[in-house]
Amino acid sequence: MATKVWLALLCCFPVACRGAVADRGGPPAAIRDSAGVRIVENERSAETSRLGWRVGPEPSVSIGALEGEEPYLLHWATARMLPDGRIAVANGGSDEVRVFDPSGRHVATWGGQGEGPGEFSGLTQVARWPGDSLVAWYSHGRSMSVFDASGNFGRSFSLQSAETESWLRPRPVEARPDGTILSLNDPEGADTAVVEIRDGEGALSASLGTHPNMIVFVETDEYGNRELSSPAYGPALRLALWGELVAVGHTSRYEIRAFRADGSLARIVRRDDALRAPVQADLGPFVEAQMSMLSESGFPAEMLPDARRSLESTPLSETFPAFSRIVADATGYLWVREYDYPREERPAQLWSVFDREGRMLGFVETPRRLGILEIGEDYLLCSTRDDFGVQFIQVWPLDRSATGS
Q1: Nearest Cα to 389, choosing from 125, 68, 65?
Q2: Distance from C-alpha of 305 to C-alpha of 288, rounded to nearest angstrom
Q3: C-alpha distance across the termini of the chain, in Å
Q4: Considering the domain 3-10+16-399 in this protein, what is its CATH number?
Q5: pTM score, whole prediction
Q6: What ranges do the domains of the chain cover?
Q7: Is 61 left (phi over 0), alpha (psi -120 to 50) or beta?
Q8: What are the C-alpha distances in Å from 363 to residues 46, 234, 340, 356?
Q9: What CA–CA distances, in Å, run from 204 to 125, 181, 195?
Q10: Are 193 and 201 contacting, i.e. CB atoms less than 8 angstroms apart?
Q11: For 62-75, what is the HEC assignment?
Q12: pLDDT tens digit sequence for 312-333
């Protein structure tokens, strides 16, 4: 039996050609325009080359503890930096927004578990909102609430849909400080998803179309129950708000499409990349990684043996993903994380950085075990865990002044 969904809980003719160019020492890029769409074809540089940007040797702020005062005990937390340097932590374990000053000292707690105004059930994320306000989403993205800079509740709303079935309702992915919401409609069991842009009331502003998502197999057991599965190392859809654009990539190939606010395609960014196929020896690391996620998530211990047997029968994807993640930073650069092949561990996470036009500048390293939540002009806001599984929200300094090598 392949991996089940509950285990995961855990074209046109060119009209102009600009030839090959290089930017700031990065690899050559062929740029052309095709029917109003800018196409940027990047060559891949040697993996040993570096852009020169450096992450500090240790975090400047670290929030979290194994034991101690409750606000510092984090469970299923994510975070965003507020305009005044405070850090808003969405602590999913307690359904609270915990606010820390720039030094990491707890100063306020907003919300809490419940169904009243300003309360949450299933808090998942926070983001900056117009002015100095903040928006939080919860109940699997079904609801969003707005708070002012002091934590006073303003209003709640949900993403509006013409469909009445709850399983067809869109969910937020990211939000901009101007009130723009990037949403995704990916019904369970579907191998495609609809990407949309919404306004600050949750109403549809533009559709970016239907895009391939995870490869999904649907099976029916002897009792007639549907079981959904996907291959090991299968491709997936990746999204990011990239300046005024929306970046959409599918990890089956190294290609990222950037859409305007009206839903039209503005740019296609590609990079030479030879896809590799996994072999049977790669299944073991996949199984262990999934089992570790299940254990950390509190999956019932008595069900773990069945989960392992199911994972061990998971089919392999035809190829490894071309990349892992895409993240846009505060200055308009796009960071694409290189895929880490099993049994070939890198000493650090490796990212390809692209400029605002989509030209690759070079590679940047970030420390292992850091889950990047936000990239500012001079910092990384991250989530990490220590050897005991204790979660921390940390700020790491980022120096962009160095030259590449």
Answers
A1: 65
A2: 12
A3: 47
A4: 2.120.10.30
A5: 0.89
A6: 3-10+16-399
A7: beta
A8: 9, 25, 14, 16
A9: 20, 9, 11
A10: no
A11: EECCCCCCHHHCCC
A12: 999 999 999 999 999 999 999 9
